[in-house]
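Problem 3 from the worked examples.
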Amino acid sequence: MTVQPIRLFGDPVLRTAAAEVVDFDRELRNLVQDLWDTMESQGGAGLAAPQLGVGLRVFTYHCEGVEGHLVNPTWVATDDQTQLGEEGCLSIPGLYWDCVRARSVVARGWNMHGEPVQIEGSDLLARCLQHETDHLDGVLFLDRLDAETRKAAMKQIRQADWFDGAVPTIKQSPHSLFGGAV
């Protein structure tokens, strides 16, 4: 288990929907540990497998004193309230913008041993669970920004030292603000 390099905006793996996990084996447990080690080393609130170049539906989180991982996650909003707050991403380092998310969610999935898991979160934890699940669908939080903010964000990204000049794409999330398919 080691800290792995994080894939940056422009890498096609970040725009590809991840596959469902079907084998709850040692390889999955090693992936969860690599995600955890990498997330913690970077001070992130969450990290999804595609950010390490692995196309599987797995993420780790450590947010508001709650930590763990989810395999094959889904989520639904627990009410119709939204929150507008600053959001960032380890795949878009050093840049943050306000993004609208559901305020409270329930996320369900499995742990690395195939046991069911349910997490209820509000505010920052809810934001994290939604953000990481979006990664598994090839969606970045940039896709959720309003047009004006997204245009300003893309300008900042193009000026960032780490940006390699990849052609940016915007994707529609398959999840509405309240969970489920759009």
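Problem 4, a separate protein:
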Amino acid sequence: MAFLAETGTGHLVAMDGAPEAGGRNLAPRPMELLLAGAGGCTAFDTVLILKRGRQDIRDCTVRVEADRAETDPKVFTRIRFFYTVTGKNLKPESVERAIHLSAEKYCSASIMLGKTAEISHEWEIVEAAG
């Protein structure tokens, strides 16, 4: 139950299943990769938008939590994005705007997942040292 996918850009991604499903638990599940992709997509957008807005962003992490339907197909029904944005003198309104633009306009992955799931976004700003 382990699989190796080659992306359109030639990168390899390993996937595996849970032991009870015949997997060896050596790699992420396909549904985990969907969430990771959405988290990466929105983090990328957020950083790019803040940089273009001349904000001194140093780091951005996005933690993603999700609930799935009880029955097949076990689609995501609720997804929560938690952003930690680190920088120097970041403007809260700029961070909020960047996350909103990602959620509503740019992040194809989360916008697609929003067709079946209720999506929420929370964020915090951490002042960078030095």
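Solution to problem 4. The radius of gyration is 17 Å. The mean pLDDT is 97.
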